[in-house]
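F.,

This is the one I mentioned.
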């Protein structure tokens, strides 16, 4: 939701944002363990921007896309799992990139200093192996 200016919102304000009854938000809080609302000293539910975004996702799944509550819970659970998996994948790719950039730098420095080119396995200087060997087999 855009235009959120306060740090915390009460349940009545949030219900008004979504055009729904307060009781539905309380019901969804019970049914969706991922919707963990904080409470103020008086015991009232308070919503952060993140809570409102999460409620917006639930609203979209249940009200607009007509998911069942169980289907919406599964969708959210799988979405979070994919996000965690993607984060691990990104970390691995960043580590690989760092290694490759370092390797390229070392190879560039070696070539620029007039040193020998990188060592290749025998017969692999043209990526096709030794052509004479193929001629003998024909």
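My design for it:
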């Amino acid at each position: 939701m855009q235009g959120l200016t306060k740090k915390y919102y009460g349940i009545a304000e949030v219900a008004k944002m979504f055009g729904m009854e307060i009781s539905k938000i309380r019901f969804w809080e019970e049914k969706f363990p991922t919707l963990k609302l904080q409470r103020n000293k008086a015991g009232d539910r308070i919503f952060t921007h993140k809570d409102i975004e999460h409620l917006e996702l639930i609203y979209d799944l249940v009200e607009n896309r007509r998911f069942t509550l169980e289907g919406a819970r599964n969708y959210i659970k799988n979405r979070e799992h994919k996000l965690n998996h993607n984060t691990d994948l990104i970390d691995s790719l960043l580590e690989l990139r760092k290694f490759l950039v370092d390797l390229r730098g070392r190879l560039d420095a070696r070539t620029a200093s007039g040193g020998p080119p990188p060592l290749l396995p025998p017969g692999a200087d043209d990526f096709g192996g030794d052509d004479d060997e193929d001629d003998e087999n024909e």
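The beta strands are 9-10, 38-39, 45-47.

Talk soon.
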